[in-house]
Here is the input.
Amino acid sequence: MKKIIITIICALAVLPLSARDYYASEFGIKSNGTTLNTTSIQKAIDFISEQGGGRLCFKVGRYLTGTIHIKSNVTIDLGEGAVLVGSPNPYDYDKVDWAPAFISAENAENIAITGLGVIDGNGREVANNFLAQVAAGFIKDPLKLGRVADRPHGILLVNCKNVLVEGINVRNAACWTFTVDRCKDLHINKVTVDSRAFWNNDGIDIVDCNNALIENCFVNAADDGICLKSHKVQYGDENITVRNNVITSSASGIKFGTFGVGGFRNIKCIDNTVYDTFRSAIAIESVDGGQSSDILVDGLKSLNTANAIFLIVGQRRGAQKSTLDNVIIRNVYAEVPVDKPDYGVDYEGPTLEDMPRNVGPCVIVGLKDQNVRNVTIENVEVKYPGGGDPSFAKVGTNELDKVPEMPTAYPEFSQFKELPAWGFWVRHAENVTFRNVTLSAAAKDYRPAVVLDDVNGADVKGVKASAPALKARVFVAKNCKNVKK
Here is the structure.
């Protein structure tokens, strides 16, 4: 990890010694919140880059603009009280590689966005104006879901090298809030993401990146909080550390996928907190043909989150088989609620999704010919509400084949609806070890705590489970080999 920080700092230090601070007002950029500054801001960025680099500094004020493109050796510095505000006009945004964006960079080196100011995408107004243009027939909506595909991302950085984003506040995107795609040597530090303006408001998306550190951030997102993705099979996410972040979301807190064609390798998630989150605290999904391995989750606090741990192998597209191998999850404390964790927020998770169902367990699930392999769960405590109701499509431990395989489904912990365990459900797995794992249910549950189905090599001696009137069947193993109880 020290290598990552040193690499980024050294790279940013290559700015010429003559690089200076330029102030927005010098270029006629207005801070009144009504003058559209797109052209003047872009002229300033281009000029600074041509001079060899420097900082474009914004003081207190509201700076209205459409898409701006950061160029090599340029830092955008937003002082406290400075706000870049997105134009409400859908036609003021340019496409960058594959998507439109508010703040963008492409094929740039040694760039930064710093300061205590705000990037406000004005997303709800922008999105609603997109919808108005769809209704008028001027923009086509291929999704036909009111989620218009070409809504601009808040920040989109594509194929950049040596990137620092530090201290800023990013708000109210019309689509994903902060997306970094195919970037190398990336440091995101002390960034606040607060975006529940519209659908698909992911917090921070790391796509096909190499050598990245995301730390000390706060994320409040309508969709996934910090999400690793891979759009291209020749890339994948590699050498990524996500540490000391606090996340709340109406989807998952920290998520690998859903799109993951290039896989995830050498990823560390250290000392993160997830709370009031609709789906999973940590979701590691290898479902698109990617090869995913060497993943460490060490230190995770999950409060009022519907699912603590979700690991899955699927096969949604193509002939290439997905893999998930060598995952360590340790030092986790989780409290799972009986009620909807994100109730009442803007754009909350779908109320009727896969309902009614009992509170679901942690999930480790592969496919019949594609096992999840080499998983260690260590020093983990999960507190459940219990109270499972057998009238909710009960699946007994003598009829495990009733739990569907669902290889092509969009992966969520709730996709199976009713699972036959309240603590951990493990299926199609190989070499799964539990060490010092404590599971408790506040109320009686008709299901056993841990169910293993088609597992070759498992050690559950380290599991302790407690619940009111808990029967002797704490563990059930069917179709398994080499299980140590």
Remarks:
- The helical segments are 2-12, 38-50, 123-135.
- Residues 1-17 have pLDDT under 50 and may be disordered.
- The first strand starts at residue 20 and ends at 23.
